[in-house]
Amino acid sequence: MEIIVNGKKIQLPGPISVGPLLALEQVRMPEMVSVELNGRILRREEFDRTILGTGDQVEFLYFMGGGA
Amino acid sequence: MIRIPRPLLNEIISQAKESAPLEACGLIAGTTGLAKMVIPMSNLDQSPQHFMMDPKEQFAAAKTIRKNGYQLLAIYHSHPSSPARPSAEDVRLALTPDVAHVIISLVQPSTPEVRAFKIEDGVIEEEELEIVDEQ
Questions:
Q1: A51 in a domain, yes or no?
Q2: Which end of chain B has the lower number of beta carbons within 10 A, N or C?
Q3: What pLDDT is attached to residue A67?
Q4: Could you count the other beta carbons within 10 Å of the beta carbon of residue A40?
Q5: Fold adopted by B2-132
């Protein structure tokens, strides 16, 4: 199964949800990332119940913030 | 090392001054360490001491950067009234790997100080920032 993650095609052995995908992508703090699936930002509670399918486009990125 | 053409640096400084006393923030993208574009971002916190980017804008920016064939080189933000060095919160929220953190200090508004840092696993290391003047 092929999906696109941050613009790059990746092959997966089978269906997978967003949570395990983040682990596969070596995201160390999944609670600190935003995830977009096919143009829609997912709520955090959707991460583990959203199963990805062939051709899905996933974007993830870390929160960007700071302070003086 | 990160190299920033002076016009792009001036854009960042102008944004910081216009946003003051609130913090300004944005992204610097380019290739092989040379900045090619600056993407100003909204500061959701609207605070003089904090910034947080809008994820919707972040996703749009990531696609713009990719479409141009660039990479994200740096995250920048201003310190309206404190020096150009990472705060404890900057370190805590330095989550994106392999990017520089550019800080613009407006402590001396007529001569803003701009410095770049790598922050990995809580360790701060200053990175050389070269201002590229047009030939």
A1: yes
A2: C
A3: 87
A4: 9
A5: Cytidine Deaminase; domain 2 (3.40.140)
Q: What is the pTM of this model?
A: 0.95
- Residue A45 domain boundaries: 2-62
- Counting the structural domains of chain A, the total is 1
Is the residue at A68 inside a domain?
no
- Tell me the pairing of strands A8-11 and A2-5: antiparallel
Provide the shortest C-alpha distance from residue B11 to chain A (in Å). Answer: 20
pLDDT in tens, B73-83: 999 999 999 99
pLDDT at position A8: 95
The catalytic residues of B are 23
**What pairs with residue A62 in β-bridges?**
A33
Check if B86 contacts A (Cβ < 8 Å). Answer: yes
- Do the beta carbons of residue A62 and residue B53 sit within 8 Å? no
* Predicted pLDDT at A39: 96
Least CB-CB distance to A64: which of B53, B56, B79?
B53
Residues of A in contact with B47 (CB under 8 A): 67
Domain boundaries, chain B: 2-132
Whether B90 and A67 lie within 8 Å, measured CB to CB = yes
Residues near B84 by Cβ (< 8 Å), separated by ≥ 6?
A: B103, B104, B105, B113, B114, B115
B23-72 confidence digits (pLDDT tens)? 999 999 999 999 999 999 999 999 999 999 999 999 999 999 999 999 99
